[in-house]
Structure formats: structure tokens, C-alpha cells
Design goal:
The complex is a heterodimer of chains A (299) and B (252). Chain A is of the alpha+beta class. Chain A is 28% helix and 29% strand. In chain A, the strands form 3 sheets. In chain A, strands 1, 2, 3, 4 and 7 form a 5-stranded antiparallel beta sheet that branches. In chain A, helix 5 packs across helix 9. The two termini of chain A are 19 Å apart. Chain B has 2 domains: 155 residues, no CATH class; 88 residues. The chains are: A alpha+beta (299), B mainly alpha (252). Chains A and B meet through strand 5, strand 6 and strand 8 of A and helix 1, helix 5 and helix 12 of B.
Chain lengths: 299, 252
């Protein structure tokens, strides 16, 4: 996964490093390559991770404009947004030689994790004793290189969190036993991870629709996507903090998703303007969302 | 490895149904309804052992005891019910042997607020707003456990100092998990916010710590604070908060 923003200082190029694949071990000495998920995860697992990283140190320093007096290390950070976990799990010694090969091994107590994790491999500046110059990193901790992989721990990864329920029994409070679907957006806060807050429930009593959704029928996907988009935007537009366009939301949160959807569905409009549209003319609001969903890639 | 306990989870549909039973009931009636189990509660299939009902009873007793000391159920003064937050946070951290992975399950906190202690949740939030009763970042007990877990400083003479920050400041910090996931970093930020609260007056305070949170959040993509020693983390956060204070003192 590549970074979506530019940093105000020179950073390393992908060619400055060679990154081996991540592996995990169920049994000692038997590494399994990590794809998108880790099978059989539960709280009792001690997740042992490993990879090889080679850094062309001299070349990386040159790319970043850093002299030999700067201290740089390789660091691995593991994040589990759903369980609010973030911690450093590996730090190399200072990279001094022209070429540094690190064999990274780290272990995570899975009782701290839930949902999915991100594993960040970074080259970090810990100290820069050289003169402070424009466009050169100087803060301790500056991220000279970052690479992130996402790993699903529970269930299979999907674009939209979808569950099946019998509305007549499990959703009696909804008083809509024949609704084909229901979109729930309950995070309590726009800083909640969107995959935790958003749920699309398919009614098992409406089997034809549920089956078409499971097959990812394009029309069904468009309908569900439009409704999910509408729910996320309405949730955000009801928050005063969202309307002041502060855009202070981390990646993967409801707020960040709402910002992107707002920009995509209502280009050139502020949040306050879109709120006004949704209040004055709900049909126009819905049509704009449907128009966006109809041209967005499906699947 | 310490035992990992699995806690009862009330699925969304069952939580909604239970919510409609709770709404409109008095604290006294909800005290009679409080229970340590629910027929629709489920547990994770693997990964630990189920918590016993004895421990849930002990937890409820400790929470009720803490509330009684503050006038529960008859005293509904704001200062009493707000004081419950700190007291309940201390009880939850001490008496609830829950791993962070389990604590991230909104369904467990729905169980806490709707089954185990609906009376306390209603005493604390008499409007019975569903966001306080259903699991989520604003759940009555869920927010208190995470605050205690991240902000308690056991090595300090006053381990609970950071939990006495103004409510708005705590909400602003805890509802930004991007900056409040690493305990060392979270505590540094909270200390900086405490300084702001002490030095910026009146209505400008809330604007000041929102500005501080934004500036800290802007630092994160540039700097990995998780790899730095606590003193360096404190230095960077302190520098950000001092800049905010200087700007607000000058402006106001």
C-alpha cells in the first residue's frame, strides 16, 4: 500500500530497499507467507512475524539528503484500529554500512487485536545532527520510507461489511419484515473505523435479493452502495464538526470516508452546502449519490 | 500467558430489542431487572475461557458500591453523577479482566449497559440516549474503560490525574483513535492538554485543545512517535501544545 500524501521532506525511493515478503509461523521453523488474511486466528495466538529487509543505506541517505551523522533505523509498527492497538514491534540498530540486511522477527499477543491489522515497515530518522535545511527531515521519528500491508484476522476481507439476518425475527424493532436490506451506520463518532461502524444487512426472507447480492449483481451492488453512501454522508452531515470542513479524520474512519464521498458525489461543494441540499431537496441529494455510484467501478 | 477471558456479547438485533425494554423504565425498576446473563448473549467460539457469572456479579457489586458512595440512586445532582465516571473507570480497570481485543467489541458493552447495569447507565445518563446504552465510543461504560486503560499512570503519585481532564477534552482525545491508541503517546498528549486547560481560559479552551489535536494529528504522517523514547515523545507533544497556548494567549 503506497502513501497517498506527500511529505515536506525528501523521502526514500522504492529502489533504495529490497523488501522480502512477510511470513508468519504457526509452528516454529515453518513460515507461511502472509497473503491477505491469517487463517485460524484467535486471542490465544502469539503471532510470530518475520521478513527480510535490505537497505542500500548510502543510496537511501543520498536520496533523502542526509549525511552519515544522521541515525536511521528500520522499524516495524503494528496497528489494529478496531482494538485501538498501535505499538512498535521491531527496531533495528543504527544502519551504518553501505548495505544493511535485517532479518526482522517480531511477536504480537493476539489478545490485543481484533478485526484486521496493518503492519508498517519503515525507515525512520532517529537523530539528525547535520545542519537543518529545507526539505530535509529533521524531527526524530521522521518517516523516510513507509510500506503498509493490511491483514484480515477475522473472516474474509470484503469491500462492504455485509451480514445476513432474518428481519422478521432478528430485526423486529425495524418493523420492516419485507425490506430486502437495511444499512446500519452506528459508530457514535466520525473517528470510528468505517468497517466497524457500517453494516449492510441482507434479509434472508427475501432470498432472491440476498442471493443476487451475494453474487455481486451489478445493479444490486449499485443500489446497496448508494444507500451505504447516503447513510455515511447523512451521519457525517449531522455532526457540527464535519460541517466546518476541518477534515481532521484518520485514514479508514467514517469521517475520512465521508470526506471522500462528499468530494466524489458533490464536487466543488462544501459540507455545509451539501447539508443544505440534503435538507432542502432530498431527491436531488439522493440523485447526486446515485449518479456517482452509477459511474463508479463495481465489485 | 495470562488467561484470556471471553465476555458475553449482545448482538445488534438483541441489543435493539433490549433497548426498547429499557427505555422509559425507572432506575429502581432497572435495578430489579439487572442480570448477569441474557438468553441471546453469545460468546466468541475460541480464544479463551468464558467469564463466570460470579465475576460479573462481583463487577456489578463494585460498580453499584462506587455509585452508592456518590448518592445512587436518589442523588441526581450533576456533580455526583459526573464523579461516577472516575469512580467507575477505576472499578472497571481493577475488576474487569478484559483484554483490549475483547474490549473492542461493542456487543459486550451493550451487554454491560443493557443487561448487567442498566440502572447505573440510566442514573448516569437520565435521558437514556441510545448511544449511551448501545455499544460504541459513547457507551456509558465502554468510554470509561478505554479512558482508564489508556490514561491511568500507575507509577505516578496521582495515577488518575489525567482522567480528571475536562469532559470535552477527554471526549476529543478518546474519539480520535488515530492519536489515542498507543498509551505512551496518549498520555503525553493528555498531559499537554492538561497544560492547555490550566493556561487557556474560558470558552477558548475547547477551541485550543481542538487545535492541539489537529496539530498532533498532522504530525503523525511525518513522524513515527511509537519508536521514540517517552522523553522525546513528550518533548514533541509539549512543543506542539506550547505553540497552541502561545497562539491562544496572544489572541485572547
Amino acid at each position: 500500500m503506497t502513501r497517498r500524501y506527500a511529505l515536506p521532506f525528501k523521502t526514500a525511493l522504492p529502489a533504495d530497499l529490497d523488501l522480502g515478503a512477510w511470513h508468519y509461523e504457526r509452528e516454529p521453523g515453518v513460515p507461511i507467507r502472509i497473503d491477505e488474511s491469517i487463517a485460524g486466528w484467535d486471542y490465544l495466538m502469539q503471532l510470530r512475524l518475520q521478513r527480510e529487509v535490505a537497505v542500500k543505506t548510502d543510496r537511501l541517505r543520498a536520496t533523502c539528503g542526509l549525511g552519515p551523522e544522521s541515525d536511521i533505523i528500520i522499524a516495524v509498527t503494528i496497528l489494529s484500529p478496531q482494538s485501538r492497538y498501535r505499538a512498535s514491534h521491531f527496531q533495528s540498530g543504527f544502519l551504518k554500512t553501505a548495505y544493511s540486511l535485517e532479518s526482522i522477527q517480531c511477536q504480537v499477543d493476539c489478545a490485543n487485536l481484533a478485526g484486521s491489522i496493518f503492519i508498517d515497515t519503515e525507515v525512520v530518522l532517529t537523530k539528525n545532527l547535520g545542519p537543518r535545511k529545507a526539505f530535509l527531515a529533521h524531527f526524530p521519528g521522521s518517516r523516510l520510507f513507509s510500506e503498509r500491508i493490511a491483514v484480515e484476522l477475522e473472516g474474509s476481507s470484503s469491500r462492504m461489511p455485509v451480514e445476513v439476518a432474518k428481519f422478521s425475527e432478528q430485526f423486529g424493532w425495524l418493523s420492516a419484515p419485507r425490506a430486502p436490506w437495511y444499512v446500519s451506520c452506528e459508530g457514535g463518532s466520525l473517528h470510528t473505523p468505517v468497517m466497524k461502524a457500517l453494516r449492510v444487512y441482507l434479509n434472508s426472507d427475501e432470498s432472491a435479493f440476498a442471493e443476487a447480492a451475494r453474487r455481486a449483481d451489478p445493479v444490486i451492488v449499485t443500489l446497496l452502495g448508494a444507500d451505504a453512501t447516503r447513510r455515511v454522508l447523512l451521519e457525517a452531515l449531522n455532526e457540527p464538526g464535519f460541517l466546518d470542513d476541518s477534515k481532521d479524520y484518520a485514514d479508514g474512519t467514517l469521517g475520512e470516508t465521508a470526506v471522500r464521498l462528499l468530494s466524489a458525489c458533490f464536487p466543488g461543494h462544501t459540507a455545509a452546502e451539501v447539508k443544505s441540499i440534503s435538507d432542502r431537496d432530498g431527491a436531488k441529494f439522493d440523485a447526486a449519490i446515485q449518479s456517482f455510484m452509477n459511474v463508479a467501478p463495481h465489485g | 500467558m495470562a488467561d484470556v477471558f471471553l465476555f458475553p456479547r449482545l448482538p445488534a438485533s438483541a441489543a435493539r430489542a433490549r433497548l426498547s425494554d429499557v427505555l422509559g423504565k425507572s432506575v429502581a425498576e432497572l435495578s430489579r431487572q439487572a442480570a448477569t446473563s441474557h438468553p441471546e448473549a453469545v460468546f466468541a467460539a475460541t480464544g479463551g475461557r468464558r467469564i463466570g457469572e460470579d465475576l460479573l456479579k462481583k463487577l456489578r457489586a463494585a460498580l453499584v458500591g462506587a455509585a452508592h458512595q456518590l448518592g445512587f440512586p436518589n442523588d441526581t445532582r450533576q456533580e455526583s453523577i459526573v464523579a461516577f465516571d472516575l469512580a467507575a473507570g477505576r472499578v472497571l480497570l481493577a475488576e474487569l479482566p478484559i483484554a483490549p481485543g475483547e474490549a473492542s467489541r461493542d456487543e459486550f458493552w451493550s451487554f454491560m449497559s443493557l443487561v448487567l447495569a442498566p440502572d447505573l447507565a440510566t442514573w448516569r445518563f437520565s435521558d437514556q440516549n441510545e448511544r449511551r446504552l448501545l455499544g460504541g465510543v459513547r457507551n456509558t461504560f465502554q468510554r470509561l474503560w478505554w479512558r482508564a486503560y489508556l490514561l491511568c499512570e500507575p507509577q505516578e503519585p496521582d495515577p488518575w490525574r489525567l482522567l480528571r481532564l475536562p469532559e470535552d477534552a477527554l471526549v476529543g482525545l478518546m474519539e480520535r483513535p488515530s492519536i489515542s491508541s498507543n498509551p505512551t503517546v496518549t498520555r503525553s498528549i493528555a498531559r499537554g492538554i492538561a497544560d492547555i486547560a490550566a493556561n487557556v481560559n474560558g470558552s477558548a479552551r475547547e477551541e485550543a485543545w481542538r487545535d492541539a489535536y489537529k496539530r498532533v494529528r498532522q504530525r503523525f504522517p511525518l513522524v513515527n512517535l511509537d519508536v521514540l523514547p517517552p522523553a522525546e515523545v513528550a518533548s514533541q507533544i509539549d512543543s506542539i501544545c506550547r505553540a497552541v497556548m502561545a497562539a491562544f494567549v496572544a489572541k485572547h
